[in-house]
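SAMPLE LOG
Freezer: B-3
Tube label: C17
Construct: single chain, 176 aa
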Amino acid sequence: MTELSLRDSTEADIPAITRIYGHWVRHGSGSFETEPPEEAEMARRREAILAGGYPYLVAVDRTGAVVGYAYASAYRTRPAYRFTVENSIYVAPDAGRRGIGRFLLAALMARCEALGFRLMVAVIGDSGNAGSIGVHKACGFSHAGLLPAVGWKHGRWLDCVLMTLPLGAGASAPPE
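STRUCTURE (predicted):
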C-alpha cells in the first residue's frame, strides 16, 4: 500500500472529493446519481454530514494529494435508527487496488464505534461491484440482503447489495 495518512476532511478538500466522486458517477455503478454534482453541492453535503455529528475522512498520499474519502451518515432519519449509520467510500480512479478503501473503511468503523453507533450498513450499488463487496467483507461485514434491479443507470438495471457490521456491543446491549 502507498504511504497514506488519514485526517478529517476540510473545505479545501472539496475539489478533490468532487473530482473523485464525479468520475464514479460518470463511469461507475456504485453511485446511483446520473449527473455529477458541482463543488458547491458537494460542500453542502459535507457540511450537512458534519452538522449531524458524523465523520468525514480523507486519505492523503505522501505528496499531499487526496486519494480517497469516506464518511458515515444517517441510515434513515427516523429516531429509532439513530444508532445506525450508512457508510460511503470512494477512491480516486488512478489509486485503486492499493488498500485505500480498506484503510478508509477501517478508520471510519473505528470512528463510528467511538461515537457510540451500533451498526454500520453498506448499501453497495451493483451486485457486480466485487471491489466494494470484497472490501466490506474483508472488514467483517456480512451479507444482509439484495435489492434486485432497484436502479437504472448506464443502460442497465442495477442491484443494491446490503451488508452490515455490528459496532461496539452491537445489539447485545441497549445503547448508552
